[in-house]
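Project standup — Tuesday

K.O.: blocked on the structure for the chain from last sprint. Re-posting the sequence here as requested.
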Amino acid sequence: CKPCAKDHYTQYWNYVDRCLYCNVRCNVLEVEVGPCNETHNRVCECKPGYYTESLFCIKHSKCPAGSGVSELGNALEDTQCKVCPQGTFSRNHSSSKPCQPHQNCSAQGLRVNVPGT
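H.V.: unblocked you, prediction finished:
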């Protein structure tokens, strides 16, 4: 036995007479989360703002106005949206912001001019 050369690895004990080449390369939409070393090939995942779907990195969905983020997207899952419940709102398309509560006018000694929707 001898250590694997640079850019080569063997993950399991075996009878193979040579190490495997680290053939994984991260593309422009990925970041390296595990380097090539003597025991593992390089590991990549989608960069922030993207998630993996069928081996491709897809930009996280933006929730439409009237909906807010219920679960932030990550490298493996898309953003989850939900319709803003009564008393909350969202006027922007966003992949990171939840629904916001309406301003409580009466608590500030003000009158409601236009009710929120």
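K.O.: great, moving the ticket to review. Residues 57-108 form a domain with the Tumor Necrosis Factor Receptor, subunit A; domain 2 fold (CATH 2.10.50.10). The first strand starts at residue 8 and ends at 9.
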